[in-house]
C-alpha cells in the first residue's frame, strides 16, 4: 500500500487529512468484515467516513453558522469514531498498534476541528 499521507497537498490540511483517514477506516472495515465482524465495523465505517464527508459539506455551507454546524457534527462523528475504535480494541478485534495509530489520527482531526470551530465562532461574533 502506498503511503497516502505523503499525498496531502497542504492547501486544505483538514480536508486532506480527513480523506486519508477515511481511506484508513475503509481499509480497516474490509479487514474486520473479512474476520466476520460486521456490527461494530459498520459503525466505525459510518462515523469514520462521515468526518470527511461533513468537512466537504462545510466547504459549501450556506452561511458561517451553517459552516460551524457542519464542523460541529464532524467533531461529534470523530468522537464517536474514538468510541468504536476503543471498543474494537478492548474486544480484541483490532490490535494495539492499529488502535494507537488510529486514535492518534482521530485526535489530530479532533484538534483541527476544534481549532476551526473556535476560529469560525470568533469571526462570526465580530
From TrEMBL:
InterPro entries: 23S_rRNA-intervening_sequence, 23S_rRNA_IVS_sf. PANTHER family: FOUR HELIX BUNDLE PROTEIN. NCBIfam families: four helix bundle protein. This is Four helix bundle protein. It comes from Chryseobacterium lathyri.
